[in-house]
Specification:
Blueprint: H1 5-16, E1 24-29, E2 32-41, E3 52-58, E4 69-72, H2 103-113, H3 129-139, E5 143-144, E6 148-149, H4 164-173, H5 188-191, H6 215-250, H7 263-303
Antiparallel strand pairs: 1-2, 2-3, 3-4, 5-6
Helix pairs in contact: 2-4
Protein name: UBC core domain-containing protein
Organism: Clavelina lepadiformis
Pfam family, one: UQ_con
């Protein structure tokens, strides 16, 4: 049976990483080629110096066309344990994934990001230097249920000879970015309320560490703005309807008596009036001429 591209790629990477170095090591589980465990030393000159850290990588069936998911398994003060780390090389950002990146590239990138600030990124922590140094000492005794004691997973002697593929992966690791959350605008209602964390005891911050959930707020921002827009539009429509009803109520209706007569009725009235005037004029004229004729007849009789 022909092997899939993902299996071929992972077999090749397993061959390249079969020999552990003093800085890091990685290998797939015996019964699952798509789950890898890796171990690395804390960077020298940092709060993690002397620590040994162990993590887990889950690869999709479409690898290397899709990115892996990466998490750490022992406490370190930089990344949350058992929580997927948000890197441009991880499953959080498939749009930035490049098939040329590899498992070793991801491990080297995590080592490089250990001394940097979390700045609220998903899976990031900003413990104090003292806390991180304390966790670094404790990390040496960590034992994985699948891999055993992690101290035995790294080479004892330091080797500075790097293969060409490792040199290439180190250069690629410099291109990886640690994803940060987008700033969200506080709503006017919430801007006046105080943040409960500001009123809490600052000494309790070092006793209890909570997960950073930065990107959850960005997802609700557009939905909240859309809901606000719909509410505003609905309010405008309600105000317009109320104004129309109020206008209909307050506007007095025109009295029926003052309504103008239709144009046809007006003409009929004018015609009737004119006929009446003519009839009266004719009657008066007839009466006048009758009396005039009587007067003339009387005058003729007297003369005769």
């Amino acid at each position: 049976m022909e092997r899939s591209p993902a299996v071929k790629r992972l077999m090749r990477e397993a061959q390249e990483l079969k020999d552990a170095t003093s800085e890091y090591s990685a290998s797939p589980l015996e019964d699952n080629l798509f789950e890898w465990h890796f171990t690395f030393r804390g960077p020298e000159g940092s709060d993690f110096h002397g620590g040994i850290y162990h993590g887990r990588i889950l690869l999709p069936p479409e690898y290397p066309m899709k990115p892996p998911s990466i998490m750490l398994l022992n406490h370190n003060g930089r990344f949350e344990v058992h929580k997927k780390i948000c890197l441009s090389i991880s499953g959080y950002h498939p749009e930035s994934w490049q098939p040329s990146w590899s498992i070793r590239t991801a491990i080297l990138a995590i080592i490089g990001f250990m001394p940097t600030k979390g700045d609220g990124a998903i899976g990031a922590l900003d413990y104090t230097a003292e806390e991180r140094k304390k966790l670094a000492r404790k990390s040496q005794s960590f034992s994985c249920t699948s891999c055993g004691s992690i101290q035995d997973l790294l080479a004892k002697s330091l080797s500075e000879n790097h293969s060409e593929s490792e040199k290439r992966d180190r250069e690629l690791a410099k291109q990886i970015l640690f994803a940060k959350p987008k700033p969200t605008k506080p709503s006017p209602e919430k801007s006046e309320t105080s943040n409960p964390s500001e009123n809490s005891d600052p000494t309790s911050a070092t006793q209890t560490r909570e997960s950073v959930t930065a990107d959850d707020g960005d997802a609700s921002a557009p939905l909240q703005e859309e809901n606000n827009g719909q509410a505003n539009s609905e309010g405008v429509r309600q105000r317009i309807q109320a104004a129309s009803v109020q206008e209909n109520i307050t506007q007095p209706s025109a009295p029926v008596r003052n309504e103008p007569l239709p144009q046809t009725s007006q003409r009929q009235n004018d015609t009737a009036s004119l006929v009446l005037v003519v009839v009266l004029s004719v009657a008066i004229a007839l009466l006048f001429f009758r009396r005039l004729d009587r007067v003339l007849n009387i005058s003729s009789g007297l003369d005769g």
